[in-house]
Specification:
By secondary structure, the chain is of the alpha+beta class. Helices cover 46% and strands 26% of the residues. The chain is built from nine helices and ten strands.
Length: 246
């Protein structure tokens, strides 16, 4: 049951990301720029930049747009600097919410996040109010025709913590230290197609809700993800089958 629940949440989150992918160029450009500023323009030695560029390519961002973002991050720092901020709070039904942002204006961002939460029956919490309910880990989603034992063996050798095999889709989780090695293993494997590779906040316990509350939480997450400064939203909601299977 634990594996089924985890897969249902992964599938639901991925479905939402597919829907908004075309609207997220601003967030992706921002991430590429900040990653370049932090560790340089070479993705071979800058894992954060490599991951950001991969996400941009998956979202069908033009190569010229990606390279301009890299150049901006590698150029003179005469523009407002972006900073990473994490907000924590609660949504409908007491569900814990984690919101990661990149912003050049803290006041604007916190105001927009607080407004979205309060409009949806939630509230903004203090630092650490829900972070203890989550772990930070890597997720690699691949499509492959390889059998489960082969995938399991390769993934565990590369540092995987868990492997969930569902038809032709495999969800592999790992700690942050092994994430890049695991991701590259399957990128280099011609028999596998990496659908997604990301670092995320994963709840240690889930909060079950009814279908009505789940729909309210889904609308809240959509509002938050539509904010330009928001990079990602995570929650500990246990989606009902009627929502998680969409």
């Amino acid at each position: 049951m634990a594996g089924h629940s985890k897969w249902a949440n992964i599938r639901h989150k991925k479905g939402r990301q597919d829907q908004v992918r075309g609207k997220k160029f601003t967030q992706l450009i921002r991430e590429i720029t900040v990653a370049t500023q932090e560790s340089g323009p070479d993705p071979a030695v800058n894992p954060r930049l490599r991951l950001a560029m991969d996400k941009a390519q998956q979202a069908n961002m033009p190569k010229d747009t990606i390279m301009r973002a890299v150049q901006r991050g590698n150029g003179p720092q005469d523009t407002a600097a972006f900073e990473a901020i994490r907000y924590e709070g609660y949504g409908p039904g007491g569900v814990a919410i984690m919101i990661t942002c990149l912003t050049d204006n803290r006041n604007r961002t916190v105001g927009e996040v607080r407004h979205a939460l309060s409009q949806s029956g939630g509230n903004l919490g203090t630092e650490g109010s829900v972070a203890y309910l989550f772990n930070y880990e890597g997720l690699v989603l691949i499509k492959t025709a390889l059998d489960e034992d082969t995938i399991m063996e390769r993934a565990i050798e590369a540092g995987a913590q868990d492997v969930i095999y569902e038809e032709s889709i495999v969800a592999i989780t790992t700690d942050t230290e092994s994430f890049n090695q695991l991701r590259q293993l399957f990128v280099d494997d011609a028999s596998c197609e990496v659908e997604e590779a990301t670092l995320r906040w994963v709840p240690t316990t889930e909060c079950p809700v009814d279908e009505d509350t789940a729909e309210k939480i889904e609308r809240l997450i959509e509002k938050l993800e539509d904010l330009d400064d928001v990079q990602a939203v995570f929650s500990n909601v246990a989606w009902p089958d009627s929502v998680g299977s969409q």
